[in-house]
Design brief:
One of its GO terms (cellular component) is apoplast. It is found in: Secreted, Extracellular space, Apoplast. Its main location: secreted. The chain has one domain: AOC barrel-like (Beta Barrel). About 15% of the residues lie in helices and about 45% in strands. The protein is built from two helices and nine strands, in the order H-H-E-E-E-E-E-E-E-E-E. The longest helix is centred in the first third of the chain and has 17 residues. The chain is elongated. It starts with a helix and ends with a strand. It binds 2-acetamido-2-deoxy-beta-D-glucopyranose (3 copies). The site of one 2-acetamido-2-deoxy-beta-D-glucopyranose has 4 residues, from loops.
Length: about 190
Amino acid sequence: MEKLAALIAMMVFLVAIAMPMAHCSIEGPEEVDEWFQKLPYAKEKVTKLHFFMHDKYAGNNNLTAVRVAQASVTAKSPSSFGLVFIMDDPLTQGLEPTSKELGRAQGLYALSSQSEMSLLMAMNLVFTSGEFNGSTLTIMGRNPAAPYREMTIIGGSGVFRLARGVALAQARFFNATNALIEYNVVVIHY
Ligand SMILES: *[C@@H]1O[C@H](CO)[C@@H](O)[C@H](O)[C@H]1NC(C)=O
Ligand SMILES: *[C@@H]1O[C@H](CO)[C@@H](O)[C@H](O)[C@H]1NC(C)=O
Ligand SMILES: *[C@@H]1O[C@H](CO)[C@@H](O)[C@H](O)[C@H]1NC(C)=O
């Protein structure tokens, strides 16, 4: 009996390691349950992503980020404290806005410091092409006016279920209407 149990456990283990953890579309709650059952046997992967985010937050047309709220003190605040934007920014492979679109950064950013220009970022990276099409990464972090801004990957969906990692952002260009941000992302997932 014990031998049989051991054999079954071994077979379950082999099936578990042979089955890929990755998948893009949810088939239902059973699929999620199965995924969690296999999780103890899953191997961690490290994936690196590199892309550019195009943010058009002012001007007359085709804004990708819109101002949705501000406080009565915002206009007088040197750090625009209280200003909130909702974004749906294209993420591209190359620097040019016309280069291949990999996905969108959807979420909000808010001016959240009373003493310096600093943003709270709460957004989903929604991948719409390539090997991560259909998967998302969720970022929550602080985005101050520094050469490099380190933000936290707090989770994900699809191939990025239970992801964690670091998103490093660097402003490559900005003026009164547009910003171009380079992202280097390192994610641990299964
Ligand atoms: C705004 O978007 C529309 C539709 O995609 C496009 O035809 C137009 O050229 C864009 N305008 C500017 C100024 O980029
Ligand atoms: C991404 O996935 C969607 C849904 O499965 C599909 O309709 C679309 O064609 C895919 N896009 C690319 C560029 O592969
Ligand atoms: C800001 O940069 C964008 C993109 O290069 C350009 O199209 C736009 O004319 C610039 N706006 C101003 C106010 O300089």
